[in-house]
Amino acid sequence: MKREGGFGAPLSFYLVVSTLTAWIAMGYQLVAVLMNPERMLGPLAKTLTTGTLIAIQIGSMALVPIVMAGVAFCASGIFHLVFQLLGSNRQPFEVTFRAYCYSVAPASMFRLVPICGDFLFFVAALVLLIFAARGALRLDGIRATVE
């Protein structure tokens, strides 16, 4: 991974991959809700029509890229701040941001697995973030794992 080059390329990669996988996962969720609305939504299901459920899901899908961009900046900012406070990071924010985007986006492919995809995503993202922090921020393996 290049350590410089701006925010555009990593953010674009992160947004494309994570938005597509989130949309597919939301599609799974919509199918589950439509199959058995009362089980998924409880008493609220009696007040919502199928068209309303689909409209809500489409509206949520439209917000995904905006939310994902915010998550990328906030999460990498938190990681950067923690590394700075612990004295492990002497790199600019851009390096932390690039490491976050290029490690979490591939892990989001695990969201395509129904039922246990979010758990697999969490584990894969954690492992890839450790490797990214180790390589990009030039930390040793123990320090990258602990922090």
Tell me about the largest β-sheet. Answer: none
Order of helices and strands: HHHHHH
Beta-strand content bin: under 5%
Secondary-structure-derived class: mainly alpha
Rounded to an integer, what's the Rg over CA atoms? 18 Å
Q: Mean pLDDT, nearest integer?
A: 86
User: How many distinct domains?
Assistant: 1
Given the C-alpha coordinates, what overall shape results? elongated
Weakly predicted, low-confidence segments: none
How much helix, percentage-wise, in residues? over 70%
Number of DSSP E strands: 0
The count of helical stretches stands at 6
Q: What is the terminal-to-terminal distance?
A: 21 Å
Structure description:
The chain has 147 residues and is mainly alpha-helical. The chain has one domain (8-146). It contains 6 helices and no strands. It has helices at residues 8-35, 37-41, 50-85, 93-107, 117-136, 141-146. The protein is elongated and about 55 Å long.
Question: Which helices and strands, and how do they pair?
Answer:
Layout: H1 8-35, H2 37-41, H3 50-85, H4 93-107, H5 117-136, H6 141-146
Quick structural gist:
The chain is an all-alpha fold and 147 residues long. The chain has helices at residues 8-35, 37-41, 50-85, 93-107, 117-136, 141-146.
What brief labels describe this structure?
0% strand, mainly alpha, elongated, 6 helices, 147 residues
